[in-house]
Structure formats: C-alpha cells, structure tokens
Design a protein that fits this description.
mainly alpha
Length: about 325
C-alpha cells in the first residue's frame, strides 16, 4: 500500500504540472493580456502599462512566466490578481467557503436520495415504481441544469415563497444566529435542488444497475437458500457489494465540491468561485484562473486516491501489490 501511495503521488504531481502548463498556455494563446484593456483609458500612459507588464513578467517568454509562477506556487504564493488588485489567495478564500457550502449541501442531498432510490428501484424491478423512477431520471439528467434553474427561478418568482438569488438577505447582519442559519437555508434551497437533480438521476440509475447485477449472483441465491432473512440478504450482502463501484464516483465528487456549481452559481447569483472564474477568464486574470484550476485538479486527484484506498479497505478482493 505504501508503494502504491508513493506511485500515485508522483503521478499526481506530474499530472498537475501538465494540466497547469496546458492551462497557462491556453490563457496566453489568445491575443492580449489584462493590461491591454487599460490602453483604452487615455489617462493611463503606455509607459505605465509597460512598467506593469515588466513588473509582473508579462513581457517575458511563456516558459519563463510559467517557471516563475510554478516556483512561487511551491513557496505557497499564487500570484496577484490584476482585476481585484489583491493577492490571489485572498480572492479565492473569500469565495471558497460559499462554494463549499452550496456543493456540500448538494452532495448530501444527492447521495442521501440517490442510493435509497436506486435500491428501491432494483427491489421493484419492472414494476410501476421502477418505471416511474426511470422516466423521472431520464427527464432530470437530460435537462440542462442552467435551464432548469431559470425555470425554477421563474416559478418561484410567481409564488414568492423563496429568495430568487444571492446568499443572504439585505438585513442578514442584524439577524440572530438561528435566523441567520434559517436565512442561509432558504437561499440554499433553489441552487441545491437544481444542482442535485441531475446527479440524483444519474447515481440512482447506476445504483439500480449495480444492485440488479448483484442480486443475480450465486452467493445471493445461496444466502436465500440457507434461509437468511431477506433484509439481511439485501442490506448485508447485496448492498455492500453493489455500493463498492459507487466509492470511485464519490472520489470524483470531491472536486465537484469546488467546481461543480459554476453555472448554477452564475444563474442563481450565488457569490462563489463560479462567477469568480467567469470574471477571471473574461478579464484574462491569469493567476486567479491558474489558482482555481490547480485547486480543482488537486481535489480531483486526491478524491480518486482516497477512493482507491477506500476500495482496498472495503473490498477484501482488491489488493494493491508492488508492480
């Protein structure tokens, strides 16, 4: 296991370097940089713009710029935001918690509903419940999430029962702690539900298929033949093995805690990393884009690694050996 962990760590480092360099190249492949927009301002002289470009190394070759950025990242410095005029770490940290709250709420809702619904559909295979869930699932994950968000916002605007955007009410600071939590929960409802629907539909179908495959295995038939109670057969033997493939998908969800809500954040005016990334890309705020991408890629690799370790612990049939 130690050898496997070291091997995965080295591969992860190489992947992060490759992903970051590709993104850095793509950001520079398009013409211009952030300071080109300042050239439209007659009050800013070309000498001032040239001085800023030299200060941040934007007049140097691509490899030199990337090497300088990579060296600073190794020291824990992620650069300076041109658009917000503050260090990148301050910009990311100011939005990170908001995105995490939304994505974590969506993760809890998704997995708490998808797994039981998948098991329920498998146990009622080809019955009305199974067919109804199949139709709803296909409808949910075939509908674009941003379009669904717009529809939900329109319906809620007609009813007036929930906030239409943002994270807090205007007088949020004057609330007591219970009211602050309640206000945040009300603002979470629409983006969380919209963000979760497609994931619930997809995971429910996967769990259903896994459960059906396991229920037809010979050891399940043998367990029933021995006279074990049906609940014990389903939840102790079948569900445990059917859930193993889901552990890998749970590893992918870790990166989604940061990046999965980008479009929904923009549509629902949630002040998270999604709108921050959009602004950074449009303004060519290179170091903000690089920091966000590095964070997301790291979480994806960490999630996959933890999923592999969890699979090795949960399933005794899986062993990671040297070579």
């Amino acid at each position: 296991m130690i050898f496997f962990a070291l091997k995965r760590f080295l591969i992860a480092v190489l992947l992060l370097v490759g992903i970051s360099f590709l993104t850095f190249w793509l950001m520079h492949a398009t013409p211009g940089n952030f300071f080109d927009s300042l050239k439209l301002n007659p009050q800013i002289s070309p000498e001032t713009i040239a001085r800023y470009e030299k200060l941040y190394g934007l007049n140097q070759p691509l490899l030199v710029q990337y090497g300088r950025w990579l060296f600073n990242v190794c020291k824990g410095e992620f650069g300076y935001s041109f658009f917000y005029n503050v260090p990148v770490s301050h910009v990311i940290l100011s939005r990170l918690g908001n995105t995490f709250i939304l994505s974590f709420a969506s993760l809890l809702l998704t997995w708490s509903l998808a797994i039981p619904l998948g098991v329920w559909a498998a146990l009622h295979h080809n019955r009305l419940v199974d067919r109804s869930l199949s139709i709803l699932s296909f409808a949910a994950f075939s509908t674009p999430s941003f379009f669904l968000a717009i529809l939900v916002l329109y319906m809620v605007s007609q009813w007036g029962i929930l906030p239409l955007g943002g994270m807090h009410s205007p007088d949020y600071e004057s609330f007591s702690w219970p009211l602050k939590i309640f206000d945040l929960a009300r603002h979470l409802v629409i983006p969380t539900v919209v963000l979760s629907l497609a994931s619930i539909a997809s995971l429910q179908r996967i769990m259903r298929g896994n459960m059906l495959a396991v229920l037809h295995q010979q050891y399940i038939t043998a367990a029933r033949a021995k006279g074990l109670p049906e609940n014990q057969v389903i939840y102790r033997h079948a569900l445990k093995n059917a859930f193993n493939p889901m552990v890998t998908l749970l590893g992918y969800e870790l990166s989604g805690l940061i990046s999965g809500a980008a479009l929904i954040e923009i549509v629902c005016s949630w002040p998270g990393l999604g709108s921050l990334m959009l602004t950074a890309v449009r303004s060519k705020d290179v170091y903000v884009v690089m920091a966000e991408l590095l964070l997301t890629s790291s979480l994806l690799l960490i999630g996959n690694f933890l999923a592999d370790i969890a699979l090795a612990r949960l399933d005794p049939r899986i062993r990671y050996a040297k070579g």
